[in-house]
Hints:
Strand content: 35-45%
Number of helices: 3
Number of domains: 1
Strand order of the largest sheet: 1-6-5-9-8-7-11
Order of helices and strands: EEEEEHEEEHHEEE
CATH topology: M1 Pyruvate Kinase, Domain 3
Helix content: 10-25%
Distance between the termini: 6 Å
Number of strands: 11
Structural class: mainly beta
Low-confidence stretches: none
CATH superfamily: PK beta-barrel domain-like
Largest sheet: 7 strands, mixed, barrel
Mean pLDDT: 84
CATH class: Mainly Beta
Amino acid sequence: MKKYGEVYRISVSAEKGSKKNNIDKAALRENFGIECDAHAGSPRQVSLLQFEAFDVIREKLQEIKPGDFAENITTRGFDFSSASIGDHLYIGDNAHLVITHIGKECHNGCEIKRQVGDCIMPRLGIFASIIEGGMIQVGDKIRWENDHD
Length: 149
């Protein structure tokens, strides 16, 4: 089944553990990650989170914004709850990613969890490796393909 959405925000940070900054465009490098991001080269090359999931937290923490969960790509138009490892994402003209992890452990109760009692990244965060690199930018279309829907 094919599903479509878009890149809502792109976020990077120079050091692990530091706050991510939103940028308009980024270079995805094959088998590496987003250039200029501290998590590039790790097993979780790129992280994605659906913007719609922010509503759960926004009720208690109104100033929450894309990048605050340390995600690289905030999407709009997807519900990743049915995502599976091995699903493919195609962003813009040439970027091709494959989902490698779903969710992650929250670091001893991250700042967001301490403030509002919940963190969505462990349940809804998606991690992917880059099969084919390319430039991506805010507003790019994303095509998500899986065989299980």
